[in-house]
Amino acid sequence: MRNILRQLALIPLALAAQIAPADTIFEFGGHTYKIIATPATWEEASAAAAEMQLAGQQGYLARINSARENNAILDAVMAHLSEAQLAASLAADGSDTPFIWLGGSDKAREGQWVWSDNGDQFWEGDFNGNPVGGLFTNWGVQPDNATGNEDALAMGLGDWPEPFYDLGAAGQWNDLDGNTTLAYVVEFSAVTDLRLAIEEPVMGGIHSGIGAARGWAVSSDSIVRIEVFVDGEYRFDIPHGGYRPDVGDIFMNIENAELSGFASTVNYSGLEKGEHTLTIRATDGFGSVIERSTYFNVTRFDEPFIFEDELTELGWSTFSGMGKSFDINGAIIGGERYNITLEWRTSSQSFEIVRIEGAISETGKN
Fold first, then answer.
1. Quick one: which of 110, 108, 107, 90 has its CA closest to 98?
2. What is the pLDDT of residues 53-81, one digit of tens each?
3. How far from 359 is each of 140, 311, 330, CA to CA, in Å?
4. Which residue among 90, 211, 239, 340 is least packed, with the fewest CB closer than 10 Å?
5. Residue 67 belongs to what H/E stretch?
């Protein structure tokens, strides 16, 4: 039974269920992009994009204004989609290569290609046509309306078609039948306002016993998960929503920012002596993720948990104090003799042990 209790003493006191990660999100040029791997028709993808919001900004199928933006989207998509997801996003026109939907269309009038976010025309005609208004284009030998109903814009994720690959290369655009089901990229004219701070453990501080991991996180899209990692290993989730009027005063433009606190008890004595790194990862309802890390040192008794029936005696100890700390020399804790230093911590409004060393007796033994 005692061994079981010792094991339980090492377990954090706040645990929560794991949550699957969101689709990939990345930023470029002050905009945010979200890759949606679930195939959809162009109309379905466009409608889904319009229902999404980031920091109050409505989403739309990606609009591309430069070669750098085009490459950024291609690189992100290729890094994220698996082989199975690529195979599920094939064109239906014989290209035999995967594509993703972008926000261009000529469904209103054949050959008049416009962006769905605001109706800007960027191309006039077929593959012999011309860009409009100096806007960026990146067609292959396209658009060609090959099937007679190709009114939606897509980016190729490989060269096409077999066997000559002479109509387009990865990153170039093609016109496709809008009823084809493809993965797609949603763009937002905003970046996340997700913010995170760790207040404890204190950077460079010394901790022991049962302490806390705490701080705050805010986002316009609501915080859905706070994860804790120690030395790179996932440990537990922390409940979020504690009352923090000071944070609310700073982020007055974010609704419910005053309900941003998180805190959990942590058994620091369950860690080895020495330096450790604690990382907090916050995820909001949009899927944006932010991480912050702090390093700290652990000092501890020889055993991670001292039970009631183990000898603890301060009667023969000596005490001395100066400034914000005091020393206890010769304390018997758990049957072992120690020299201990306690220091006042404003953050916890209490004294905390910051030094534990084995005491040397008069005979030269601990």
1. 90
2. 998 899 999 999 999 999 999 999 999 99
3. 78, 16, 6
4. 239
5. helix 67-80
Give the H or E element holding residue 124. Answer: strand 121-124
Model pLDDT for residues 301-356, shown as the tens digit of each residue: 888 888 888 989 998 899 999 999 999 999 999 999 999 999 988 877 888 888 88
Omega before 304 cis (within 30°)?
no
The correct answer on CATH 3.10.100.10 for the domain covering 31-188 is yes
User: Is 169 strand, coil or helix?
Assistant: coil
Listed residue (121, 108, 287) closest to 188, CA to CA: 287
Structure tokens at 191: 């970046």
Total number of residues shown for the chain? 366
* One-letter identity of residue 86: L
pTM for the model: 0.75
Fold of 2-18+192-298: Immunoglobulin-like (2.60.40)
Instruction: Select from 143, 117, 110, 99 the least CA-distant residue to 49.
Output: 117
**DSSP conformation letters of 140-202:** SS----TTS---EEEEESS-BSTTT--SB-TT-EEEE-TTS-EEEEEEESS----EEEEEESP
- Rounded (5°) CA angle 246-248-251: 115
For residue 128, CA distances in Å to 3, 145, 269 come to 79, 12, 72
Place of tokens 């490459």: 71
With CA atoms as reference, report the closest residue to 285 among 192, 158, 164. 192
What span, in angstroms and rounded, lies between the C-alpha atoms of 154 and 74? 12
Could you read off the pLDDT of 82-130 as tens digits, one per residue?
A: 999 999 999 988 888 999 999 999 999 999 999 999 999 999 999 999 9
